[in-house]
Each structure stands twice: as structure tokens, then as C-alpha cells.
Amino acid sequence: MVDVSEPPAEIAPAPLAPAAAPIATAARAHVPAPSLVTAAPLGANTYGMTIGGGYTAILPLFLVEVAYGVSRRVDLAFRYETVSGVFHYPQLAVRWAFADLGPWTLATRLGANYSLFAVKSDQLNLTSTFYLTGDLIASRPVTASTDFLAAVRTDFDLWEFRVVDGSRHATGTYRFDAMSFRLGARTQATEDLSVYLIGALRVPTESFTYRAEQFYVLPTVEVGGTFVW
Question: What is the distance between the alpha carbons of residues 79 and 111, in angstroms, rounded to a whole number?
């Protein structure tokens, strides 16, 4: 006979398994790092700097750029390039990262530029142009530390200033001058330093209008390092 006078013994609950650590999603693992090279903005009150070099055709190229993030998506930058120490290209630009489409970041960059070619002789001889540029930039992470970028740029000349044998001439030009196409990548080398490689091709507007006597393209390879702090 079964004795039912005693209550049944309580059964201890099974121990709970420890909660699994959250799995990082692709979006979280591939957040674009702020950079002057890609379309990703620096962010408010953030500084950036790029130092690079390479070749334009067969001529050596050196560049330096500094920038400041004036808001979450807008940066103000100053860039200086020189080719062989003879051609000089300072630029003051504003970059706006205006959209995020999935993993892609889209940005535009508007620049005021001055190009200078000067030769020292018995008399000063120089050719200079003031022009505007507009860039459309797209970039996306491809790994946790590497971004891919593509960009297209157009140049619009405003005026040209020449000094030849002491004679000065200023002329308004007001024309589209060239388009440039760029492909490249940026990768995180250390906690503070990113390195990048960019290939570019500059195609003058005359090339699109079949003026063969002025047809030429300028390939450029650029490599360098970029910092954000």
C-alpha cells in the first residue's frame, strides 16, 4: 500500500544554461571607419590627415591633406599636391556624406582649386588656373578592416592667368576641363594608421568631343597613410 500522508519531495529545477554571447552581425562587423580617403565622414570635432605619394604618368607625385569634421557628416579639408615640384595644386574643399545605402556610404566633395606651373628664368614665367571640382564618392567595407572605394570627378575652369616674358594675361575660360575616375582600397594597418592604394585616370573633355589633336589621358597611382584623431 502506498503511503500518501507525506508530501512528495520537491524536484530541484535544472540549472539554466549561460546566455550565449551575441553574434556580431555583418553590419556591425563592417562599420566603415572614418577616413579622408573613403566616403566615410570624420565625425564632429574630429581631425584627419593624409600623407601620400606616387606617380602621375612618369612624374613623381607628393600630397598632404588635413581636415576637420564640422558636423557628423560634413568635413572641411585643405589638400596640397605637387608633381615633380613644378606643378602645384592646392585645394580647399567641403565633403558631405549624404547617404548610407546598406553597406555603401555616398558622399560628394566640392572644391575650389588653383593649379600653378612656374619656371624660374631671367624673367618669371607661369601658367595658373582657378577651377572648381565636384566629386561623387562611394565606398563600402569588404572586411572588418578594409574598405573599397570608387569615385568620379569633374573639373570646371573659371579663369586662367599667364605670365610670359614679363607679360601678364588673365582670361575667363568657363568650361568643363576634364573628368577623373578613381578606384582604390583602404585598410587598417595599426590602431592609429590606415594605408591606402588608389589608381586614377584623368580624361580631358576634348577626348569626349573627338578633338584628336588634344587627346591624352593621365594615369595616376597613389599610395599613402591616413590618420584620424
Answer: 10
Pick one of 3.50.40, 2.40.160, 3.40.710, 2.60.40 as the CATH number of 32-228.
2.40.160
Give the pLDDT confidence score for residue 77 in this predicted structure: 98
Cα–Cα distance for residue pair 194/227, rounded to 1 Å: 7
Q: Are 74 and 93 in contact (CB under 8 A)?
A: no
CA angle 45, 47, 51 (to 5 degrees): 170
Amino acid at 152: V
Distant-in-sequence, close-in-space partners of 161: CB < 8 Å, separation ≥ 6: 126, 127, 128, 129, 130, 168, 169, 170, 171
Domain boundaries, the chain: 32-228
Give the pLDDT of residue 146: 96
Q: What predicted TM-score, i.e. pTM, was given to this entire model?
A: 0.81
H-run or E-run covering 206: helix 205-208
Question: What rounded mean pLDDT belongs to the chain?
Answer: 86
Per-residue CA distances from 4 to 7, 9, 10, 15, 171 (Å): 7, 12, 15, 29, 111
113: how many CB neighbours lie within 10 A of its CB? 20
Low pLDDT (below 70) residues in the chain: 1-31, 119-124, 206-215
Whose CA is closest to 137, among 122, 148, 146, 127? Answer: 148
pLDDT of amino acid 195: 97
